[in-house]
Amino acid sequence: MDRAKELMKKNTMIIALIVVTLFFAIQTGGTLLVPQNVTNLISQNGYVVVLAVGMLMCILTGGNIDLSVGSVVALIGALAGTLIVNKGMNMWAAIIICLAVGILIGAVQGFWIAYLRIPAFIVTLAGMLLWRGVALMILGGLTVSPFPNSYLNLFNSFIPDIFGGSVNVLSIVLGIVVSVIYIAIQLISRAKNIKKGYATESGIAALTKIIIITIVIMALAFSLSNHKGIPTILILLSIIVVIYGYFTTKTVPGRYLYAMGGNEKASKLSGINTNKVLFLAYVNMAFLSAVAALICVARFNSAAPTAGTNYEMDAIGACYIGGASAYGGVGSVGGVVIGAIFMGVINNGMSIMGIDNNLQKVIKGVVLLAAVTFDVLSKKKSRA
């Protein structure tokens, strides 16, 4: 019984994701899990994963959020459209400029938040209005399109199958490789923790988690193999997730985020430059917002002044649903990815079922409230 409770506690969101996916798969007559729709799910929610990873860095510092990310996406998208479509600038030069402007925006907002200690809510709320206004000025209220195919192929194409045939064998091979690497990393990490005397989950819980995630990886690989193969956006998302997953768990600056979220005063007294940590969190958030903007304009093949509307809510929702604490100091990149997929499955499933958009917003609001409530009640219980 105790092992079952531990198993449920450690894998709550994974189990919830599986249940929700099966529910919508049944309700949509299997349409949700059709290979083409799985690919659509990845492309439609790529920006959520990117923004949610950045938002996690902000939340970890003490429950801070960034309300300006949607407007930054609109601004960078407008800049990309102007440079690439209207000015005919070299694609790579335009991308570098867009990313640099994103970093500059993050530095401006980070300075006010970290060094002047203006509440992040106020600064990013001002940024939400400011950057949206700049985007409207750049585009003159008009939509810019189409983008050249060379740019679109960066984010909307598929990795060619070197094996050939009606089924994309490369997807299956890469699925097997990723599964083997994941299992090896988990086993090696567990062995090291046990050797060092660290607290670890039970063998059954660890094994169950490995089996579930391996099955999910292989199911995704087989699904993609029956459509067009591996989308390039999935490669980009995987790189971002791996880099930030390693950064938050295996590097000293990454652990500073958790320390600051746990107790900022204690972190400062122990020698951590908390101002710098907070500043870099917001610089990173704006940088990833620029990356998300480049993804979005390629997906829509246009740059519009209304782009990015409510994107900040999708990112925040994915973080809290994925297990990030509203108080800061708790959360993981893996959990955020699960939260983003969870949101994507709900959105896509309800759309296929033809549920009214207004009702969809109600349901997503209830899910977000439930996730935060669960976090708050858990914290109170642990303190008691």
UniProtKB/TrEMBL annotation:
Q: How does it sit in the membrane?
A: Multi-pass membrane protein
GO molecular function per UniProt: transmembrane transporter activity
- UniProt entry tagged with the keyword Membrane: yes
Question: Key word Transmembrane helix present in the record?
Answer: yes
One GO cellular-component annotation of the UniProt record comes to: plasma membrane
Principal localisation:
membrane
Which CDD domains does the UniProt record give? TM_PBP1_transp_AraH_like
InterPro entries in the cross-refs:
ABC_transp_permease
What subcellular compartments does it reside in? Cell membrane
Which segments cross the bilayer? Answer: 12-35, 41-60, 67-85, 91-113, 120-142, 162-185, 206-224, 230-247, 277-300, 320-346
Arranged from A to Z, the UniProt key words for this protein are: Cell inner membrane, Cell membrane, Membrane, Sugar transport, Transmembrane, Transmembrane helix, Transport
Q: What does this protein do?
A: Part of the binding-protein-dependent transport system for D-xylose. Probably responsible for the translocation of the substrate across the membrane.
Question: Which named protein is this?
Answer: Xylose transport system permease protein XylH
